[in-house]
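Entry for the shared binder. Reason: the reviewer on the internal report wants the predicted structure included alongside the sequence.
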Amino acid sequence: MSIVGKLSSAAAWRTAIVALLVVSLLVPGIVLSDFFFPYVVPRNIFFRVVVEIATAAFVLSLCFGRKMLDLHDEPIFWSLMAFLAAASVSALFSPARMHSFFGDFERMGGIWAWLHLVLFFLLLRTLRDEDWGWILNAALAVGLFVSVSTIVQPSGLSTVGNTGLLAAYLLMNVGLAGYLASTNVRFRWLYLAAGAVNLIALVYAQNRSTVIGLVLGAIVAGVIFAALGTKSRRRWIAPSMAAALAVVVVGMSVAIKAFPTSGIARHAPTVLEKLALTNPAGPDVSRTMQWRAAIDGFKDRPLLGYGLENYDLVWSAHFDPGIYRLDTDIYDRTHNQFLETLATAGLIGMVAFLGIWLAIGVTLVRAYRAGRLSVPGLAILSGLQVAYATFLFLWFFDLNSTMLWILVAALIASRGTVGSVVLEASGHADEEALTRPILALASVVVLAATIYGEGYTPLRANYALAEIDASRGSTAQILSQFEALSNSPVRQSSHAPLIMEQYIGSLRPRMKEMRADSSQRRLLDRALTETFAVFGREIHRDTLNDRLYAREGALLDDAAQFYESPSYRQQAIDALHKAIELSPHRIQQRLLLATIYTRSGDYDTAFVVLTDAVKSDPRHGAPRYALAQAYIRMGRSDSALAMLKTSLALGYVGSPETYLSMGKRLEFAGRRTEAAKLYADYLETKYTKAVWNRSGTIDTPVPSADIAVAAHLPLLYARAQDSELAIKTAAALAAFDPSRASIVDSFVSDIGARRRGSWVARSSLLPCASVRASRWPDSVALGACGVFRRKL
């Protein structure tokens, strides 16, 4: 037999496919720390390369063997293909077509990801019934490894990197363990034990969505089992257990909410406490903000949507500035996969997406009626679909759990029909023999090109991004990575210009020095040129992305300072105006624009921009703080003080130099009490009221400027003869540095005994004169003592 014949034999190609599918299931355990988004990129590329190799092997077996595909009765496969087609049409008309097709490094999603999931499904459908044991047991074994890692690590992150996504993966493993227990009597207790380990790890993951999904899925499974099971009393065991689980979860959550300090609250799993404290109108309002934005985005483009992976455009267009008080302002996911699909793929994509779930349900019914799925198996697989759909109502797709969802869908499809989709072809062996070698050669060429273009190339670019982001190496070494990014044809490149600009921005304090050194100047000049090129490429791909224009404006501002060029400054202003036009309620671009105007001396325009920023979100402190800085430069101290007070009241704390500058002006004008109130509000807002508790400690690093304020503030109250506040505020110095407790005790004793004379002439509780005279000066005290002598 020829080599080709051996490779195309049933045993060889099936063994290869099974082995590669088992290898693909190792995805959740792959973490390479030297890469950008190490929990996402390496494992996605690994999965894709394995699927591509397996697909090529399968195509080769079709080319040289007497086999054919029979996909006419595969509703789940065709529903996946329909969704892929609908998403592709949406992407073609998307405002960010390339991003929709290939995603970015943070998610590695898009059409390209779904194509590999569809191929993964197809490869799974080539399996015979006897092959499924290898796949399911391998999946469960990897899940056990992840579960044990989760349990032994207090963080609960395990190898997945995100507790919510980890919980979804564990949820799928609980379902797989339950299914295997229902089909294998001999090892039933072993599978149930594996499911219990996954369930414990799921609790450690502390994700509310999966707990809700688990309860709802258990109820659905119990109802199905009771309705279709035998007439014996045992059929009520499953629904009774599901009901008991629901009662425990709901009851404990209600008890925790009603009695948050009770013993139940102290000893209950953290996930139940999080569930009890869920408040869509409070801390969880960020989710409902995203849902409203998704609905508004659907109204913008109801038929085809913005394209997969383009929710960030939806969020920018319908940005709610209230998010600043709750969470990060950057969202690329709706945290509701159904609404996200509606906004990004439109009605056509949403119908196709729901068609997948419908096809799974229809196939489950068919498999049960055909007798290839038992009642327990039907109940468990149906409940698992309900549980995962519940999770997706509050989260989104991720490779770790989605690949298992596809695996379960293929398992259901294999139960719906007898055998795999690969059939032995009838007819003569030499039929179409001339076309098959060409197809085989083409598949090998496509495989090589795909692995290089969509495997090695993004991995290399991702490594370069990680080098820049982590600032590993010298400036010359880091800037050399800019060339790799600017010349790379990688398609998941939306982060490249942002990270490049971020690093150049970090060099701003050194730009004058680098400009004076010819070699350093050439390096930075080239880096700027390359970064501008990458920005131009990304903006061309994603014309509605306000963050790209905003960060390009920051880069242009850096260039304006480096080259001392008014032209670059004007280009920066134009780019920021474009960013504001695309997302008028986002504040960052307005603050940067105001900074540019202020630096160039155009205070009036800066004032207008900052006033608009305040109007954009009257309850956010950052624009008011920036407006206070503008007032200080304009010499309007009273207005600046009012803005600083308001920004602090709104919970925003800026640079300590601004408060020191304002406080010194007030002191110089004889308004010591107002200066003291400003300092006190600053410390309390930054460190909470714990700053006045001298027996406590502040866990965060305390800069010398804040120690200086803490050592200066009590003296202002002492001069104002307010002994109570002088004693209270003196506690801040001891909270910042317990070694200063003796100084605080001495001050408190003197103030309490009305011996203020030895203190009111001083500017600090710290013994600044002795510190400066000492041969071994206290560096912390020395730095703090110098703060009020410096000009601010």
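Summary line for the report: Residues 54 and 527 are 41 Å apart (CA to CA).
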